[in-house]
Amino acid sequence: MILTVTLNTALDITYRVRALRPHTSHRVTEVVERPGGKGLNVARVLAALGHEVTVTGFAGGATGRTLQERLRGVGRLRDALVPVDGATRRTVAVVDASTGDTTQLNEPGPTISPAEWTAFQEAYEVLLGSVSAVALCGSLPPGVPVGAYATLIRAARAASVPVLLDTSGEPLRRGVAARPDIVKPNADELAELTGSHEPLQAMKDARRRGAHTVVASLGAEGLCALTPDGVWHAPAPGRLAGNPTGAGDSAVAGLLSGQAERLPWPERLARAVALSAATVVAPVAGEFDRQTYDDTVTRVTVSQRAGAA
Amino acid sequence: MILTVTLNTALDITYRVRALRPHTSHRVTEVVERPGGKGLNVARVLAALGHEVTVTGFAGGATGRTLQERLRGVGRLRDALVPVDGATRRTVAVVDASTGDTTQLNEPGPTISPAEWTAFQEAYEVLLGSVSAVALCGSLPPGVPVGAYATLIRAARAASVPVLLDTSGEPLRRGVAARPDIVKPNADELAELTGSHEPLQAMKDARRRGAHTVVASLGAEGLCALTPDGVWHAPAPGRLAGNPTGAGDSAVAGLLSGQAERLPWPERLARAVALSAATVVAPVAGEFDRQTYDDTVTRVTVSQRAGAA
Fold first, then answer.
1. Which residue of A has its CA nearest to B20?
2. Cβ atoms A219, A213 nearer than 8 A
3. Residue A104 lies in a domain
4. What is the CATH number of the domain that holds B275?
């Protein structure tokens, strides 16, 4: 069983319009609604790969009920979201039908009370007793302390559960200091954390700050992993047309799945890069295309630069 | 008891953002959610004026549940919405905090099945037995026949219940032919119905097409009523700064309230114009400012041009 944590879950709504023009009225031609938040996206990909997965975090209000109803339809996925008084936030992606360009509107999310945060931590500690890996994903909702991920990482380490952190800003900085097994920043997050725009330098700095392994997602350049044993690079398989939404979450699912199966790093990276690519080309944002994944995963060449750590 | 019909109810969501820029990401700083659709807006104003009011139309899905929960908080308002399988649509108004400019995104609404439309008509006929007036408001959802309002007007007339129609396009054209007591088009709707951009000519044409009385809302010029007894004009009380959303619905509430109290036309128009003005200046879209209403209603001067009908 793998556990994913999404403290700021969302009901992701996609609207298709002809073209968004500010300060006018638009008829929405298509509405798609799905459970969202990075940890839920990761969990869906893990379940599709055949892993048993439990999701936790917060859910509340009418939007939370809708989100949980939708999760019931996903096989191999167990819902352990903790109820809160506030309503789960919505995100609205407005897609221009002609160009595919997307305008994003993100609600702030409900304020979590101290009692709700305590209830979550208790539930999380119980869940840690029965999982082989945990991913901590995404932003923090209002009310949750900025050091939340550091607390959750320490609890995972105390329970000897490998822990992956995928967040940004101050929660990432505090989380890294709590010595997670893996952090997966993108280039911007890495630069913000370390002040360096040179990826390898920045990754080394992130390791010095506490991360055991740093896997940086570098867009078209693919993934780069800095581990205690060396550096691996898995380039993206060519230029891909499609929607990058969720590609990072699919990469996390690949890394976590490889962690749970104790795969060597090159195989983990190949899986993560192939899942990212299969997500970009999938017609529905956040889904992945199985055929592309199967075709790509065997073709990815992972190269090593030993001893660089 | 007054009845309002909203076949295309909506959960109206207002997002405040700093400034909407297409193809970028936005943090929503404020979320307001309220029951919407023209007939529900009319009903809320009627209830605030002290009338007992029943709302009917359709509600379904998680959004429909939220809408009905919110209606339970409104005094003097009885919910007789008919359940449907599809989910009630959302409308999203994105307001630029700096300028107040609004970008509107309207979901299409659920498709109503023939069985649901039949169930509605049966419920409507029962409700007609205990009401003093009925308003038919807004657009038709997919699945409802374009002649729906004509059918509902004939049923109201058969039950001797005065009926007001506030819609546009083909549903207005068909509805007018069924001889409603009052139609309340705005200038654009009137021009689309009649082909004439000269309001008085167009109103005369609308009466010839079947409407007993035509009340045209002419924006800053106020309201003009063409009745069997003559023409009345109620100018808007000066230039008003604010949000015109819901001003037309408030005018309908004023007309309907006057109809239920059998007020003479000048008083009905004064009430409608004052409610419109009080809605424009209210801080929340669709609400009305009681003080502005009280101050304005006695100051409106309604002038008559006799015999013009």
1. A22
2. no
3. no
4. 3.40.1190.20
